[in-house]
Specification:
Layout: E1 2-4, H1 11-23, E2 43-51, E3 54-63, E4 67-72, E5 75-76, H2 83-86, E6 89-92, H3 98-101, H4 104-118, H5 125-144, H6 154-188, E7 194-197, H7 205-210, H8 212-218, E8 231-234, E9 237-238, H9 239-242, H10 245-267, E10 272-275, H11 284-293, E11 300-304, E12 317-321, E13 324-327
Helix pairs in contact: 4-6, 5-6, 5-8, 6-10
Length: 328
Amino acid sequence: MLAVGPNGAGKTNLLEAVHLATQGFSPRTRADAELVRFGTAGARVAVQGTRHGTPFEVELTIRPGEGKRAKLNGAALRTAEQLRAELPALVFTPDRLVVVKGSPAARRAYFDRALARLLPSRSSLPVEYAAAVGQRNAALRRVAARLSDSEALAPWTAQVAELGAALVTAREEAIAILAPAFAVKAAALGLPEGRLDYTGKVPTVEALEARLQRDIDRGITGLGPHLDDVGIRSGDRDLRSYGSQGEQRLAVLSLVLAEADCLAERRGGGPLLLLDDVLSELDRTRREALVQLLPANGQTLMTSTAADALAVEPGQLLVVSHGRVRVG
């Protein structure tokens, strides 16, 4: 499915609305107030479709100050983010280049989200580990302020070590699942020898206690997977430092396509792919390659300024103009 229209017509807003309805949050901002039109009391998005042949209907409403409310097939969900487990979707937007060119924190966040989708039984690990580190950091600051003694750190140190080891193992497994597919997609798009490198730092109790005074002085836990990074490479080149913007763009697109394939294989059906302005910086050969790489058993919504940017006829053409959509 291809949505076309001039710049500013509302194509990205359409894609954002679909993402919001299927994932419970915007790919652009986490400030819900930014999703509500000026001068209005709230916003609503509704989507109907089928998943594995079963119809579904989603309704999500936003009222500033009240948070988001979501319904799936008429049943209210505890949180809007629960939609992610029911309706998998992956998104590419131009600002996702931060996954490659940004800080290690951006890469950790990206791969931890992939971990949650690929290994749903361990999806809570990143949040649980971050909470344990936060509690240990607070305890470190209390010790530094002489409001507590170092013995109070022991339970949090043990929890950070246990959850940290589990998180490193889960990340290694998730990246091992993604890496072969990433290499294939990257090569097909003209980025040779695509590799994902991760060596996690397991925070054992012994290692944490060995640096205890430094952690107390700084008020932070200075060892563990919250400080790790994932290398995204082409051959021996780290694309963060030695990749062009075009190569970084191809790497992010390859990651999205790789995860789509992995999810399709593990779940029996591909996720919804939302690809915003993905064609504008691809030459004809890469556009043709992209079409061949799209999952056969999933749905893809792309945006473009021109209908002829796609190498084939789309299954459906949507024309976006002044915030309205019609079938072309």
